[in-house]
Amino acid sequence: MFGDMSTGLLLGIGAAAALVILAAGLRMTGLADKIADRTALGEAMVGGVLLGGATSISGTVVSATSALDGNASLAFSNGIGGIAAQTAFLALGDMIYRKANLEHAAAELANLFQAALLLLLLTVPFVAYAGPDFSLWAVHPASVALFALYAAGVWATARLREDPMWEPVETEETRADEPEDDEEPNRSARGPILLFLGLMLAMGVAGWTIAQVAGQVIERFGLSSSVVGALMTAVLTSLPELVTTLAAVRRGALQLAVGGIIGGNTFDTLFLTVSDVGYRDGSLYHAIGRDDLFWLGTAAVMTAILLLGLIFRERAGPGRIGAESVAMLAVYAGAIAIQAWPA
Fold first, then answer.
1. Which of 20, 30, 37, 140 has the most CB atoms around its CB within 10 Å?
2. Which domains does the chain have, with CATH numbers?
3. Tens of pLDDT along 300-313?
4. pTM, to two decimals
5. What does the angle CA 42 – CA 47 – CA 49 come to, to the nearest 5 degrees?
């Protein structure tokens, strides 16, 4: 169907799908905040698990569809490129939060833990790539390890919130996670949850559409699957993270903003598990190239910088962004420049 379309119509459909993702992601932010308040789970937990996973639905579909079509590079780089792009979005959120450094104000143990977990998860594909080309039913053990580590991390994050062993120092700039409406904890979360699920479905359909458009773009223009995955599909399917982050920052839900990005990135590592299962020609990790590893390294470096920023908690003055935000933007811009430079 998509192969018979003109290039203009094809790109128009891709843009429409991106708008669906953008609109759904924007609506999800307010719903996630309500769910956090009404269930008493907290912004960091809801942002890291529910919102982070939900806004990644379209990206999951892109990676899964690409893997089923045999395009390992597109499947891999879509997920990893999204992690790099979404981490850069936090720096943009820091720019619009004028009161203090975002990483300082959003002090939360759950976000620290999830950032460290994400760094651990990003090392698994490196080990798989460097190790033996082994798979069982065309699935590499690393994919199982990613899922197990993610599940253990979610459980540990919930436990940390219930019984934290230490707490961040409170300062004048720290934004506490408190319900915006005193009546929220007493109201049912059923309505927001059902609407949230409906938006997830719409994003999944939009993600499948973008995967089809990306395949045609690669074929018609002779572009690298890694570049298209990291800079086209990854960015388009990451639009929910962009709008939810900026909207959450403007609402003052800082833990939700930071937790949504870190949690979404952590969830995005499962793209590799889904892709490896869908890729039927063997191990996904041994079907990728240097460009895909480059984006994996970029995502790891940016995550490490973010984690250091969350720990250091620089007290940048009003109107100034943190040094970690500047560094993350510089790394991401540098990575794009390197990929765009003719070989």
1. 140
2. 2-340 (1.20.1420.30)
3. 999 999 999 888 88
4. 0.85
5. 100
